Structure prediction request, 446 residues.
Amino acid sequence: MGDKQSRELYDRALSVLPGGVNSAVRAAPEPYPRFIRRGDGGHVIDADGNRYVDWVMGLGPLLYGHQLPDPVAARIQSEASAGPMYGMPTEIEVEHAEFVVRHVPSVEMIRFVNSGTEATVSAIRLARAYTNREKVVVMKGGYHGAQESTLVEGDSEHTHPSSPGIPSDFAKHTIPIPFNDIEKAKQVFEAHGDEIAAVITEPILANVGIIPPVDGFHETLRDLCTEHSSLLIWDEVITGFRVGGLSCAQGKYGIDPDITTFGKLIGGGFPVGAIGGKAEIIKEFTPSGDVFQAGTFSGHPVTMAAGLESLRYAAENDVHDHIHKLGEQLRSGLAEIIESQAPEYTVAGTDGMFKVLFTREGPASFNNHCETGCTQRSGCSRHEYCPKSGKDVKQGETERWKRIFRPAMLEQDILLSQNQFEAQFITYAHTEEDVNETLEAYKEAL
Ligand SMILES: *Cc1c(COP(=O)(O)O)cnc(C)c1O
Prediction:
């Protein structure tokens, strides 16, 4: 059906939106992105009427694809028609908070905000205030949104902002270490332990491929934080209520963070973020405490309705089971294809996420390998080849992925993430047919 409409829209967009988009990654597909007209279950239809199996899924917020269950749609409509928002408290904020507190073991109290970025900004401010310290340890290749304290590059002792416009002083307070590097984490605490306010990490790096933790990594961070009275912040903006079901990644990995940031799924497709954790810490936010935190739209009733009813529906139906089952079919199918067609590539992902990473080297045999996506299991024949850090993914064949592979998938009506680094998401709306069609397309395109 062609792409004339997308091209024309992008041409118009370039005049009035910087780079033609409102969030950088959307412009990554070349020569221009597909503009989306509407969704339909596990599919999207673009401006020219092309229909694709959609694995972008809003970049993470959609548990039901483009098809909201009836009770979710009904509650959203009733909240929206009652009046969009009030700037005064509503019952549904309390209900949503109660839901999260009931299901996530480490969360006793929560503050809702409007984006994941806002959540991590507030979490870091809170940790600095609570500990009366300034330094923050971050993971290289980790992503915490567009915020000053974490847009930092370099080695632990030589840092600089990763974007113009950020005062270099900000970077002085940030210590980047490689994800999964237990020794480096220990060294950094040895050198700076009593200055570190917090370690912030994703449970699984999910914005630079998908990289699971090696055995003992998160346990080490938890122990180091406890020993040095620093706070452990888990950024579950992408993993929350997706990995590990309703107990989130912290339930799956058995880690108890002091603060957790949420976003994406907890708003059911509407803009959201949240900072949860131990009551003693969270109540330091204004007005119960002194750490300034506020927002006109925070706890927006329509967002709360979408998020709460989405999660409630998942609690009462086989939503996560369906997603995990399809995820395993997809990842094990991909592993078989990789084994015969591209043994140097790595199948990554867990639960409702998947990705084929275009790594450059693989083992001679696939004996005893992780069959449904890399888990960093030390007995796996691929263990020494699978990426452990963001750097490992960045050294892969990213140009091949972008220029050859993604377009070849698009031609077969399969819409993958906009670049090699974003994760791809399985939803309740996807079917076995979508999985099979996608596997056939990988066979063709790899
Ligand atoms: C998406 C994401 C963010 C940023 O959330 P926004 O809502 O885009 O501001 C922060 N942290 C992680 C782990 C994310 O995946």
The radius of gyration is 21 Å. The mean pLDDT is 96. The pocket of pyridoxal-5'-phosphate is lined by residues 115-117, 120, 143-145, 202, 206-207, 235, 237-238, 263, 273 (CB under 6 Å). The first strand starts at residue 36 and ends at 40.
